Amino acid sequence: TSAVTGSKVHSLKILGSRRNFHCFASTDACDSALVSKLPPSAFRSSSQLSASHAPVFAKLNKRDGAGGWSPLASKSSQWLEVDLGERTTITAVSTQGRYGSSDWLTSYLLMFSDTGHNWKQHRLEDSIGSFSGNINADSVVQHKLQQTAVARFLRLLPMGWNPGGRIGLRLEVYGCPYSDHDKEDDEQELSLKFKSLKNCGTLLHARGASALGLSVEPDHRRLVSLGSLLDDQQWHVCYLCLSVVLHVFHPGVFQLSVGGIPNIPEERFQGCLENLVYNQHNLIAMGNVTFTCSHQTLAVAATFPGPRSFLQLPGAGALTLVPTAGVSVGLNFRTWNRDGLLFTFRLPRQGGVVWVFLSDARLCLRIQKADRVLLDLQAGSDLDDGQWHSVDLKSRGGHLSISVDKDDMAHSSPSFTVAIEKDLFVGGRQMYDVIVPYTRSRFECLVVEGCPAEDERQEDCRNAFASFQGCLRQLTLGRQQVDLIMVQQRMLGTYSNLLIDMCGIIDRCSPSRCEHGGPCTQSWTHFHCNCSDSGYGGATCHSSVYEQSCEAYKHNGNTSGYFYIDVDGSGPIKPQLVYCNMTEENTWMEIHHNTTELTPVRPSSGERQHLVPLHYPASEEQLLAVIGQSDHCQQEMAYHCRKSRLLNTPEGSPLSWWIGGVAPGGRQNYWAGAQPGSQQCACGLQGDCLDPKRYCNCDADSAEWAEDSGLLVHKESLPVRSLVLGDVWRPGSEATYRVGPLRCHGDKNFWNAAFFATETSYLHFPTFHGELSADISFLFKTGAPSGVFLENLGIRDFIRIELQSPTRVLFSFDVGNGPLEVGVDSSSPLNDERWHRVRVERNVKEASLRLDTMPAATRQAPTDGHIHLQLNSQLFIGGTASRQKGFRGCIRSLQLNGATMDLEERARITPGVRPGCPGHCDSYGALCRNHGRCMERNNGFHCDCDQSAYDGVFCHAELSAIFKPTTSVHYAFQMEASERGGGNVSAKLPSSILSDLSLRAENVSLSFRTSQSPALLLFVSSYQREYLALLINKHGKLEVHYKLHGNKEAEVLRSQAKGLADGRLHTVVVSRVTDLVTVHSNLNWIVPSFVTESEEVDPNLIRLSSLGFSGCLSVVRFNSVSPLKEALLRPHGGTVHISGPLVRSNCGSPAASSPYAASGQPLVNAMRTDSALIGGVIAVIIFVTVAGLAVAAKFLYRRKETYRNQEVKSGHRDESQDLAFEHQTDSQNTSGQNPKEYFI
């Protein structure tokens, strides 16, 4: 689409077939000089300094008269006008200063018109209204119009001039005579030109024999989606290619209506049509039809462009004979602003002030005297839509009314006279010093000069007396219309900063600069994009708020869950919701479909084949992008059968097949686990099918259940789109099938990296194209203090990102407005050989730079500046074109507008640059928690949790167990078999094992939750018959018992806190180095103490262990050994022996309210905003913690049952439950038979 505005005659064509379309603008070359041959009568100006400075002398390179035109006073309200004699296609304008002087223009506006009135401003770019002028009096500056203009009259308005001189001008205009219609090729095409007096109406309506129709009409301010503000009484052209509606126009057209639809008068077009051409036939010229478009007398408009714009007029008494006892003011306005002062005047005899203004897009009237409001009226709504609206204020005979668009009226009967005392002020200049109260009510008129100091930051405290910015016309006082041309000539009233005889309104939302479907709203000077529901962020909804893969989420520290991913970043592919499975070494992205469970085949009656369509929630382009960027993809496929053959038949034609690959997909005659095209199953490839003559188990046609299953791993055949099962209709045939979700791992883009060895090394790529919006993101790590990451140059424009210092990243660019910079400073050095992320975005509104997780730095673009970034050199990565200030280090995952630059491929053929970059644990090692070790991989890292009591992708998932007294787990060190073989055990053991068995130093940690008191939590004995015991005594206090070799009594460390058997989660850490023991717990006490050596085990501990333990133990760790984890994850690994039930639980999670809390379901991390993203991460972490702890276990002394039986027989069970544990008495060493065991 393209905007169709003003006097610019576009040739916008929509061409194509039923499937493909393309748009282009065509302009015939024409560059003849037009001004130099014009007569003196063709020149007019607002004023002239003298006869020798007349406008007729303003011809390029001429020295006649004073050498050019100069007005009487150098003001921005001056103008020079040229009449080209007929409608002309204008392609360029050149300017020059006045010869032999210091008088020249530095900037100017360019206006066009067909009639000499109703001027339309021509803009250099969509956002630039002014043209740059000269730097001296002699040089020529030419501007070629990006969009040609068609007009008869040209007007140039000086905006800036040499400060040391005056306004001085010579000019030339280039173009050619306007051609009514260009001959085209044989395309099925319809074209017309129009100018409209109204904002709606049918231009063309065609109806075919099949009652199908096509209408073209400017609906309100837009023509379909091709343009806006088309009721500006300027010529516009519309081209339509009708090859997509041939059934309407050819051959069955029997009615073509121009300018309306028969019998529907309210939809008729009011305006002029020109050159209505269908298939190169001018329909208006056919037959006895004449076509003229008279230049109607048009209402003169005035534009109020800024806060300094105002118009002051004498009251009605000075213009008419209407008595001053009443008032009548009328006008039409159009604006994009919700607030603004329309007009104001004083009442006679200091009766107060009348304010008529817009507030929250409603019309408000307020009469106020001093600080007292006498009257409030409101009318209308949504008056900021850019359309013309009428306002009428009337007061006569004690009755006051104000109306909007003739039908929405508010009225009152004030007790005072409403009349204009002297002058009427129109626009933004407030002439009266009054106290205006403020209000926050949305439904009241807001008349405020500002907010109180304490409310300055309140969003709902608005300044409704903002200056009016918009267009006014048909201004009336009394019963007489104000002649704005007389105002322009200074013959009536006074004004400042107005553009008279034109409406300079701009639709900044057509075409919309908001990307990815973000709605566009606007004011007079700015537009705003609402990105809240788009999945994108930034000023124009350009950059995605989501990561591009599960791999990227993992390296942000996330764990398994549902995430939105955007595979092409800021590209056109929308975000999609996937499940990221991070429980394995590889990070899997899973996309489910409608049939992922094992499903029985139930064919319909008479059905010879059963079709199973698979529907994915992702779009076709999303699926292909995911598969393309992944290292590996697979899909499980299984077929369970009884008397239901799968592929092979005696004649060899397949009974079943599946469809897979790029849509609509190709027929695949092999089954999962075999090779493409083989017409086999996995067993055929391995040679172990049930029937050796067949290539699938199911093809044996057995009456017993059989299965053919496997993985599809060829990306070209994925995803599976449907199954066609052929042998399901025979009597006795039974079958079930399953197609698993599409699963992919590895992100080629995320790990694509290059290492730059020297400052002179660099990579180069084709020119970066980001004219209106561009985003760049990458990761870097370096030890160098500075260097340029990226640079691309144009003739004047450029873009550069660099490490300016060890703590500062700088983004600089120029789009024609001069160099701009955006920098971010880090509190810590960036040359630390760790990965840092840089994200840059530049659009028509702002430029932003984000470093790591720091807040983004932004720089606003000029309101009316250049917006197109025009580059033409190669894109340099890691260096510059001058080979200076190059970057030394690694750059990874470089993406420009969502597309990944293949650094590794280019690095393989570039000297001084190497593909890849190791050393990821330096940056991501901190993600491995709880003693997990970061292990390097070629593309990334993984956390080794072997020496951690935790599990999970980051060693973060707690492992917990609930157990009852009947449960027993025995963990033995790996030397037990050697001991049983006899000989010197110590000599046979490696030193690493002995260091664990000899209690010279240890670190023990666990969490527990129980209601039992007393209870033995942990017992450890060493090869040298030393032991450590952790227990809760009968008073609910925590005790640590240490007994070392040679001591007859055990040392006891006892907490002061009571009530630990309260069912809540408690954590204990015991550390000892030689004879110094330190105990930490969540009870906020630390007990350092010295222990001595001992020999025997307290018999009370033995009896206590026989009672068993009821409760929860979690994340038990003894030095580098995690016995509870070993029992839960590797129960058959040879180091543990389990008796009784052992069930995992989440009882060790702080979120678990009960030791018997069950594990929950995964929380969906489906983030839609930045704040939702943070909340989702926390939710997933909590879930993984809970789910990882959904286990139960207990470690008991191996001979516990023996002691239990002894206690029961002796009748002393009650005594054992009341053990005081304060005595340390001698006893026999009852654990001597198993001195190398770990008991809990």
UniProtKB/TrEMBL annotation:
Membrane topology value? Single-pass type I membrane protein
Organism equals Hippocampus comes (Tiger tail seahorse)
Region annotated Disordered sits at: 1206-1240
List GO terms (cellular component aspect): membrane
Q: Which SUPFAM superfamilies match?
A: Concanavalin A-like lectins/glucanases, EGF/Laminin, Fibrinogen C-terminal domain-like, Galactose-binding domain-like
The protein in question is named Contactin-associated protein-like 4
Cited Pfam families: F5_F8_type_C, Laminin_G_2
Q: Which residues form the Fibrinogen C-terminal domain?
A: 541-593
Q: Which residues cross the membrane?
A: 1172-1197
Q: Which Gene3D superfamilies match?
A: 2.60.120.1000, 2.60.120.200, Galactose-binding domain-like, Laminin
The UniProt regions of compositional bias labelled Basic and acidic residues, in chain numbering, are 1206-1225
What does the UniProt keyword field contain?
Answer: Disulfide bond, EGF-like domain, Membrane, Repeat, Signal, Transmembrane, Transmembrane helix
